[in-house]
Design brief:
By secondary structure, the protein is an alpha/beta fold. The chain has ten helices and eight strands.
C-alpha cells in the first residue's frame, strides 16, 4: 500500500504562505471582516477542544468526531452563503452547526445530554441540527445526506427562491455510491447545489490515497458528471469564502451544480480517543504549521492589524467558550416525559392508534 501523498503532491504548497495557492487573487475581506472570521474560527477551535476535554472526563457520552483544523471550511463557506441557503453536514459537523448560528452552549449541552442542547439531548455529537437557520442536520451514515441536498436544491428550484443547497462531506464519501448518484442527478437536472469535500487525507483510519484511483478524490471525478471540480486551500478562510461565493453565484444563475474539494487536516484522531498514530509525523508537522488560525493571523498582519487586536479576539473567544462550558455543565437533564416528542410529525405516536 502506498502512503498518503504529501500536500505538495496534491497541488497545494502549504510550506509557502505567500504562494499563489494559499494567497489567491481577489479583493478579499477588509480587516474588520477578516477579524470577525478569525474570531469565529477561534470560538469553534475552543469549542472543539472543550468537547474533547469534556469527553475525556466522562461528561460527554457516546462518540465524538472533532473538526479542529477544519474551521476555515465552515466559516469561509458560511460567510459566502445567504442565511436561507441549505446546509448539510457529516457526523464531523460541529463546526458547520456553529458557523450557521448554533451557540457553543447549545452544542456542548447537546454533547452532554442536557435539556438545553441544540436537539434537546436527542441528537448528540453526530446529529447537530439548526433547522431555524437551514442547517438541516449532521448525518452519521457516510454519504447519506448528499441525495438529501439534491432534494433540497430541487425544492428551491420548484419554489423559485434562488436558494442553494450545500453538502459538506469527507473524502471517504467519494467512494460511496450516494456520492456518484447525487452528482449525477444534480447534473442531469442542473440543480443549484454545491458539493464541498473536506479532504483531510484520511477516511477514518485509512489514507484516502491508498484506496482511490485518482489523486484528488472529489475534484478529479466531477468532470465525469459534466460539472466543474475545483481544489481550494481548505485552511485559508479567505480562499474558501471566495471559491464558495463564486460557485454559489454560478448555481443561483441557473448554471447547475459544482464541486469544491477543500484540502485540510484534522488535528485530532478520527473519533473519541484515537491517537492517530497511523499518520506520518512529518505529515502532521507540516500541516500543523499551516493551521487555519495561523493562516488568518498572517492575512491580518498583512492588512496591518496589530497582534494585540488578534490576541483580544482570542481572549473573547476563550471567555465565550468557558461560559458555555459552565452553563452546559449546570443545565438540567432532559425530562423523560419528552422522550417521544419531536419523533413524529405531530409530536408523538398517539396518532397511530
Amino acid at each position: 500500500m502506498t502512503r498518503a501523498p504529501q500536500p505538495e503532491a496534491r497541488g497545494l504548497d502549504i510550506t509557502d504562505p505567500d504562494s499563489p495557492e494559499t494567497r489567491p487573487e481577489g479583493t478579499g475581506p477588509d480587516a474588520g471582516q477578516l477579524l470577525a472570521l478569525y474570531e469565529e474560527m477561534a470560538v469553534i477551535r475552543r469549542t472543539e477542544k472543550a468537547a474533547h476535554d469534556l469527553f475525556m472526563t466522562g461528561l460527554v457520552k457516546g462518540t465524538t468526531h472533532l473538526a479542529a483544523g477544519h474551521e476555515a471550511v465552515a466559516v469561509g463557506a458560511s460567510a459566502a452563503l445567504r442565511d436561507d441557503d441549505y446546509v448539510f453536514a457529516t457526523y464531523r459537523g460541529h463546526h458547520h452547526a456553529l458557523a450557521r448560528g448554533a451557540t457553543p452552549e447549545e452544542c456542548l449541552a447537546e454533547l452532554m445530554s442536557r435539556a438545553t442542547g441544540l436537539c434537546g439531548a436527542k441528537g448528540g455529537s453526530m446529529h447537530l441540527t439548526k433547522a431555524s437557520r437551514n442547517m438541516l442536520g449532521s448525518y452519521a451514515i457516510v454519504g447519506a445526506h448528499l441525495p438529501m441536498a439534491v432534494g433540497a436544491a430541487w425544492s428551491a428550484r420548484l419554489r423559485g427562491t434562488e436558494q442553494i443547497a450545500v453538502a459538506f462531506f469527507g473524502d471517504g464519501a467519494t467512494n460511496i455510491g450516494a456520492f456518484h448518484e447525487a452528482l449525477n442527478l444534480a447534473a442531469v437536472w442542473k440543480l443549484p447545489v454545491l458539493f464541498v469535500c473536506e479532504n483531510n487525507l484520511y477516511m477514518e483510519y485509512t489514507a484516502i490515497a491508498d484506496v482511490t484511483a485518482v489523486a484528488n478524490p472529489a475534484a478529479d471525478r466531477a468532470p465525469a458528471y459534466g460539472i466543474p471540480g475545483e481544489i481550494v486551500d481548505g485552511n485559508d478562510v479567505v480562499a474558501v469564502r471566495e471559491a464558495v461565493a463564486r460557485l454559489a453565484d454560478r448555481a443561483r444563475a441557473g448554471e447547475g451544480p459544482s464541486l469544491l474539494e477543500a484540502q485540510t487536516y484534522r488535528h485530532f484522531g478520527h473519533s473519541r480517543a484515537d491517537p492517530a498514530a497511523y499518520r506520518p509525523a512529518e505529515e502532521v508537522e507540516r500541516w500543523l504549521k499551516h493551521d487555519p488560525l495561523d493562516v488568518a493571523r498572517g492575512r491580518l498582519a498583512d492588512l496591518g492589524v496589530p497582534a494585540e487586536t488578534v490576541d483580544a479576539a482570542d481572549e473573547r473567544a476563550a471567555a465565550v467558550v468557558q461560559a458555555a462550558v459552565e452553563a452546559a455543565k449546570n443545565a438540567p437533564a432532559p425530562d423523560p416525559r419528552e422522550a417521544l416528542t419531536d419523533v413524529w410529525a405531530d409530536g408523538g405516536a398517539q396518532w397511530r392508534t
